[in-house]
Amino acid sequence: MRLIFLLSLSAISTAVYSAPSILQNRDVSSDELYQFKFWVQYAAAAYCYDDYTAKFGNSVSCSDDFCPQVEATGAKIVYAFSNTTSTDTAGYIARDDTNQVIILAFRGSYSARNWIADIEFPYTDSGLCDGCEAELGFWSSWIKVRDPVSSILNKTVNAYPDYELVVTGHSLGAGIATLAAADLRGSGHPSVTLFAFASPRVANPALADYITAQKNNYRFTHINDPVPKLPLLAMGYVHVSPEYYITSPNNVTVTAGDIEVLEGEVNWEGNTGTGAPSLTDFPAHHWYFEEADGCKGSELPWKI
Question: Can you give the pTM of this predicted structure?
């Protein structure tokens, strides 16, 4: 499915879209770097079967040492979801008492139904603002779990009113997380912080501007990762700003100096400027401070 997906796009040029790119000249602090490396572990945990199928009260855990910092907090699963919708949207809500945070994490692409959601390119009206249109597959992935997830999330936030709320995910999970965070901010949770790793483009310019204006968005790309280049600019999709562009190679420890903070819905100084999406560039998609999707299974199930 991924091969067909990329090859079908390779003939469409991104050069038809031009927009100013502005480099924000500021350094990433050591504290920010620590936060980035911490939150990607919650995104990584969303790929772990034992987390997205967990029972209430289970600890967040990862195989093969993919989330040691999260495991050290003793964070508990409040709600887990998977295999209940046509899009197979999966993830969990967890409560981290050590850091006083409630986390909503979405799994990236794993099942065949996820890949179908990835390539549903038509726009749909998100209803978040006038003219705000989202990519159909990503928006549907959120909408199909929104009611139960929001219900549990509201109860948890009400029980722990002093806790911060974080939404995160990698790849498809980051795309869903971006739309979920925007929706939640407009429905009683204005201070939601988003950590989106390797997110595809999810919005038209109106919606991207709307989400950008909400602030508290941390959207990461890595060198020539092909996924953030999709759907293509030629289709009218753009990104939420800013972009935290990781410039270090694959499988290398990321330092603060390896991250460039770039502004704009299209910025050719970052991932967008590294060429058309290519299958050979997929190694960059996996490495976001660590192997962000290392916990997922190797098969491609229709149902899990």
Answer: 0.89
